Amino acid sequence: MPVYTYKGKNGNGEYVGGSLAGDNSDAVATHLLNLGIYPISIKEEISKNKVGKKNTKIDLLLFTRQMYVLLKLRNPLAKALKTLENSNQDETLKEIYGDIQKSLDNGYEFNVALQKQKQHFSQFYISMVKVGEVTGRLEEVFSKLYEYIDFESEMKNKAKAAIRYPMIVIGVMAMAFAILSFFVIPAFAKVYENFNALLLFPTRILIGFSDFMLSYGLVLMFLFGGFFCWFLKYIKTTQGRFWGDKN
Hints:
3 strands, flat
């Protein structure tokens, strides 16, 4: 049962605090109110084991392949998970597999057990496992999931490789442009000042743009960097993903 740290006020208006175990924050809040304490904040304590568990990721491709092979060899689901637990060297992963097996032992369906580990399994993955359980074709579902995850991983690697060269070219061009704007053009501008002659219009544009970059270049860089960071966070939200898929 998780432990929650709370802060609140008692009936005398004094600030109090402490820790309580409960199923969730609502249960802790109800218990505090019964004790005559009005809760101000309730936060779950994160233990070292829990942090490690959150940061450890399951290799879905490997897990799916192993489950397919074990089920194909007619191993019961619980025995397949036990085999994975015993063969894994990572203590956190052993704990995750053990938790899934315990859920099965307690009568939960496999997809429900995976739902409890939703930080490691996507909703699509869990839904496919549920279909396999309902239809009695779990082995086939794991085979299809393996093919899908493998294909998705391959496409991501190809996409990264495809955009790597253009990004390098753009980066080099941006560096060359910055060198011209901040160093080369200002040096030529000082030489032209000594001529006291009317410069060609394109030359005046370049010098003017260089002066603008010298004055506001850092501000523009910070603005662009801030927008880029915001955009990366936005496309990870539900609304951002919807916008990306739509466009």
